[in-house]
Amino acid sequence: MGTEIKLKGDKVIEQIPSIKDKALRINLNENIYGTFAEIGAGQETVRHFFRSGGSSGTIAKAMSAYDKDFSDAVYGIEGDGRYVTENRLKKMLTFEGELIEERLSREKHPNKLFFSYANTVATIDFAKQFKGHGWVGIRYQIEPDEAYNEIILHIRFKETDARLQQETLGILGVNLIYGAFYKYNDPKRLLRYLYDHLDKDQLEIDTINFSGPRFADVDNRLMSLQLVKNGMTDAVMFNPEGKNVLPAAVLYKKNILAFRGSFRPVTNVNLDMYEKSLKMFLHENKVDKDNTLTVFEITLSNLRSDGEIDERDFMDRAELLCSLGQTVMISNFQEYYKVVEYFSNYTKARMGLAMGVNNLVDIFDEKYYRHLSGGILEAFGKLFYRDMKVFLYPMLGEDGEIITSDNLKVHPRMKELYKFFKFNGKVVDIKDYDPNILNIFSREVLKMIGQGKTGWEPMLPSGVAEIIKEHHLFGYHPQKELEQNTKN
Question: For the purposes of burial, counting CB atoms within 10 Å of the CB of 274, is it exposed (0-12), middle (13-18) or buried (19 or more)?
């Protein structure tokens, strides 16, 4: 864990300070002063500060309320009886931060930058069935008279040894505190620095939220996108209010109906597919309406433009889906079976995938499964092993015919496999679709918007065109529209 050097070719582009150097720099800053409260994996973060030297000016208190009754006496009782939660972490951060303010006079310490760092984690269990997870956060000031900032994240351990997990947690904690004080002006880089001296196979960060005056301009949905883009996690989710949410909490034991698409922009076809498939899904056995979650999923590959991710374009799509009251998931799952596998980590309840004919034809293309030792059969075993159905939305053919599960064409080698799943009820057609909208394609709508043409508005759900125009989404500009109208 000494100083790391990052190279680009033979050129040194960055020197990463060691964990000891990071802790020491914090300790030698005479103004940084605060509390460490760590539950569940030892005092792994604060020990780096103790060991690096000069810690007396930094550490107000190191706290480990391990006993549940004692923890409840300090931080309050949790209604759900769980301790490794975001709510518990926030209580710890707030309680410890307010205690410093209460016990130290601002008159005596006018330049102090107070902070409270906390984590509440569960490391791997004895049977090694559950690898462990936790919440980690910091509440801190950049200026003495300024309101507090917060960075809160959720982690999943990948290592299979409790001691290694503890060490990983300690390194992450130092990286977080160091980044909070010295890299706060660039949250994207701060995210990457969380993995200094750590590998992606040690730790997964699947949720992060920034708040406070220094992060007033940070959109946490973009920070979520960075987690997936940087390979820190496979998928992130945010709710209709645009807030990042923990996938495990949202998906836990739910009936899930998922829609994959580019949603660029979301059209009447997307909405019709959603409404009709949801109606069918809710009529399935073992599907409880009150326990059903619909998820609109966008893959990373659908966000790329010329090889790069267009963040503005991503935000445009996110804004529209949220305005329609949808939960959104961003993933790096290229294949559908990986989506189902991911959901299966959190629920055993019935699942559904709503898709168009083209998507289903792609699923039966062998080229997507060459990396699997069992090929397409292995993928389909994972896709349909669970209690899962595909709800198929029809497509308008080149000759104006309606293509459904009965007349779609898959590769000749795949015909029997396709028949097997269809006749076993794993693929069902959406019957009561609106035939008048089958000629709507989002790529055509996007082209019309960019060129300033009119007539695309009725192709989108109610209110969506107004949002696009008001916020100038997807390259819309009223001047282009005016020029186009003048030309016509």
Answer: buried
User: In Å, what is the CA distance from 161 to each residue of 39, 156, 164, 170, 173?
Assistant: 18, 13, 5, 15, 19
Instruction: Take residue 258 and report the two structure tokens written for it.
Output: 């998922």
Classify strands 351-356 and 388-393 as parallel, antiparallel or unpaired. Answer: parallel
- Of 174, 314, 177, the closest CA to residue 242 belongs to 314
φ, ψ of residue 473 to 5 degrees: the values are -80, 155
Residue 247: Cβ-neighbour burial (10 angstroms; 0-12, 13-18, 19+): buried
Rounded Cα distance between 414 and 437, Å, is 30
SS in 3 state form for 431-475?
CCCCHHHCCCCHHHHHHHHHHCCCCCHHHCCCCHHHHHHHHCHHH
pLDDT digits (tens), the chain, 488 positions: 555 655 455 554 568 999 999 999 999 999 999 999 999 888 999 999 999 999 998 999 999 888 888 888 888 888 777 889 999 999 999 999 999 999 998 888 899 999 999 999 999 877 677 889 999 999 999 999 899 999 999 999 999 999 999 999 999 999 999 999 999 999 999 999 999 999 999 999 999 999 999 999 999 999 999 999 999 999 999 999 988 999 999 999 999 999 998 899 999 999 999 999 999 999 998 899 999 999 999 988 777 655 677 888 888 888 899 889 999 999 999 888 899 999 999 999 999 999 999 989 888 888 778 888 888 888 888 787 667 899 999 999 888 899 999 999 988 888 888 898 888 889 999 999 999 999 999 999 999 998 999 899 999 999 999 999 998 888 888 876 666 666 65
* Strands 149-157, 203-211: pairing kind: antiparallel
> Could you tell me where the beta strands, DSSP code E, fall in 339-458?
351-356, 388-393, 395-396, 402-403, 427-429
Contact 427, 392 (CB under 8 A): yes
Domains and CATH numbers, the chain: 4-218 (3.90.950.20), 249-437 (3.40.50.620), 442-487 (no CATH)
Give the full edge-to-edge strand order of the sheet including 292-299: 244-245, 235-238, 327-331, 292-299, 255-260, 351-356, 388-393, 427-429
Distance CA 358, CA 410 (A): 10
- Three-state DSSP at 390 gives strand
Torsion of CA 142, 143, 147, 149, to 10 degrees: 0
| Residue for token pair 């909208």 | 437
pTM of the model: 0.89
Indicate the helix (H) or strand (E) that contains 7.
strand 4-8
Structure tokens at 299: 């893959």
CA trace torsion 479, 484, 487, 488 (10° rounding): -140
